């Protein structure tokens, strides 16, 4: 009797913990079911016990009190998912008027993703370098979404050095040319093997370059009856389209809008007459830039012409090459021709021993084969019937003379000159500077050597004079050292300065011998 009362008391005490103890067995109901489910899908909940004493009642409950199903056997309950299906589910088991509750299962209702679009800011996505932009991945329907991004068909990994991600937004703080291209996003309901995804249409991002300052230049052509200036207004970089305006003496005379970085204008000119000053303007929707100004004047070639020769030296001061320049008084569009020992060199032709570049001729090395007389002649390039203006011949030859130059410059090999002239930006000044060398180093080395010899010689003489153990044998050496010292200074110092030193040194010599 006492044992029965004890068992009854224990069952009452354990009732608040939702565990039923019957005939010595512990009843633990277990509820299984999905944690996520798509809207309008069907899912199944199952409530069961590891041991099933009877009689038992199984209930499937949503929330606190909504009973969805009751059965005398373990429940397998199918549920049609709707928007109200999301929540917490329990299984309650009743035996002999006592109950026990299972573990909870929380069900999330997932709305399948649909209608994904990519929205740029600014829109349209046309920006200039240095500006920022955002891309938002928006879905007309869908919950529990994750986002993937693609740039030029390549997935953008997170974290990315070029982009920032926050929720459904991709951000670029300072756009560069590499950020341009096609973007799209993919929104996805991640549910294991039952995931669903929707992709946006691609959006093109255009990153424009700011316009550089325009540069103005012109060439000349003859149409059979008159001369015209072909005027070029050109940008080094920028993004088209660009609107170009031509100004003559401050007044606009022509306008062009082109999808290039250069525009050409034509203006009539008269040779020898100043037609005025021209400039151009390049502009887009945010910039307006003014070019340099030039005189629209074609000056014919006038003489006299003469050849300037400058020898170029290596680091050891040996002559390495020669630079010849053909100089004229004036001329806007000259053409130059060079002659060697009376024979004309082909225009713009180069060889292993010389390089031509307009008015400059460089002898890359001087040898008996290219030593001789050089001259140049010049005429107008736009008029093949114009007369040549010829210079006097100058002699270029080998020389053994070593010239000490005091200017400071960097030494280059002669072969570097070929590279300089092949570059479109080469100038005569650059070529000359490339071959200048300095002899300050040579002078410094000679002086240091002389000073070192004098210090060593003086130290030797002093050591011989103060050694008492070799007085008899040192007499000759003192006299010899003294004489050598005097001989050195006899050539280096005036006689009036030298004599007092001789007497002083002789006095010291006599004191040592006593």
UniProtKB/TrEMBL annotation:
> Is-annotated flag, keyword Disulfide bond?
yes
Q: Does the keyword Translocase apply?
A: no
Membrane-spanning intervals of the chain: 442-463
Q: Which UniProt keywords apply?
A: Disulfide bond, Glycoprotein, Immunoglobulin domain, Membrane, Signal, Transmembrane, Transmembrane helix
Enumerate the SUPFAM superfamilies for this protein.
Answer: Immunoglobulin
InterPro entries named in the record: Ig-like_dom, Ig-like_dom_sf, Ig-like_fold, Ig_sub, Ig_sub2, IgSF_CEA-related
First and last residue of the signal peptide? 1-24
Q: Specify the domain of life of the species encoding this protein.
A: Eukaryota
Q: For the Ig-like domain, which residue ranges apply? A: 29-102, 120-204, 304-395
Q: What is this protein called?
A: Ig-like domain-containing protein
């Amino acid at each position: 009797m006492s044992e029965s009362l004890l068992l009854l008391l224990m069952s009452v005490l354990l009732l608040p913990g939702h565990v039923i103890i019957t005939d010595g067995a512990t009843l633990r109901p277990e509820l299984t079911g999905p944690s996520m489910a798509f809207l309008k899908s069907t899912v199944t909940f199952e409530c069961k016990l590891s041991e099933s004493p009877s009689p038992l009642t199984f209930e499937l409950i949503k929330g606190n009190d909504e009973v969805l199903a009751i059965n005398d056997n373990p429940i397998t309950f199918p549920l049609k998912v709707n928007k109200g299906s999301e929540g917490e589910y329990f299984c309650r088991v009743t035996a002999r008027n006592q109950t026990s509750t299972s573990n909870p299962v929380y069900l999330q209702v997932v709305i399948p993703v649909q209608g994904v679009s990519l929205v740029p800011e600014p829109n349209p996505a046309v920006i200039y370098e240095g500006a920022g932009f955002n891309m938002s991945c928006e879905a007309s329907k869908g919950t529990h979404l994750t986002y993937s991004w693609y740039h030029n068909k390549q997935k953008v990994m997170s974290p990315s050095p070029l982009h920032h991600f926050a929720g459904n937004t991709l951000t670029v703080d300072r756009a560069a040319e590499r950020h341009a291209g096609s973007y799209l996003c993919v929104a996805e309901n991640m549910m294991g093997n039952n995931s669903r995804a929707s992709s946006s249409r691609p959006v093109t991002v255009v990153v424009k370059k700011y316009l550089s300052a325009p540069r103005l230049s012109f060439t000349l052509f003859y149409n059979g009856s008159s001369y015209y200036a072909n005027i070029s207004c050109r940008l080094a970089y920028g993004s088209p389209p660009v609107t170009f305006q031509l100004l003559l003496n401050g007044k606009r005379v022509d306008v062009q809008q082109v999808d290039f970085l250069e525009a050409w204008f034509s203006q009539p000119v008269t040779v020898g007459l100043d037609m005025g000053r021209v400039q151009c303007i390049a502009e887009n929707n945010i910039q307006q830039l003014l070019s340099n100004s030039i005189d629209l004047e074609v000056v014919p070639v006038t003489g006299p012409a003469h050849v300037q020769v400058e020898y170029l030296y290596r680091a050891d001061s040996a002559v390495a090459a020669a630079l010849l320049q053909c100089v004229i008084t004036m001329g806007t569009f000259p053409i130059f021709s060079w002659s060697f020992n009376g024979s004309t060199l082909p225009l713009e032709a180069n060889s292993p021993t010389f390089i031509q570049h307009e008015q400059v001729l460089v002898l890359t090395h001087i040898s008996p084969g290219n030593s001789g007389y050089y001259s140049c002649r010049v005429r107008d390039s736009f008029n093949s019937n114009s007369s040549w203006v010829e210079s006097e011949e100058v002699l270029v030859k080998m020389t053994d003379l070593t010239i000490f130059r005091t200017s400071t410059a960097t030494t280059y090999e002669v072969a570097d000159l070929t590279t300089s002239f092949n570059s479109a930006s080469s100038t005569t000044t650059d070529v000359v500077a490339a071959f200048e060398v300095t002899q300050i180093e040579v002078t410094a080395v000679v002086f240091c050597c002389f000073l070192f010899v004098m210090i060593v010689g003086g130290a030797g003489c002093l050591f011989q004079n103060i050694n008492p153990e070799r007085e008899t044998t040192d007499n000759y050496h003192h006299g010899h050292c003294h004489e050598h010292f005097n001989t050195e200074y006899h050539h280096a110092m005036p006689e009036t300065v030298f004599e007092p030193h001789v007497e002083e040194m002789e006095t010291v010599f006599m004191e040592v011998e006593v």
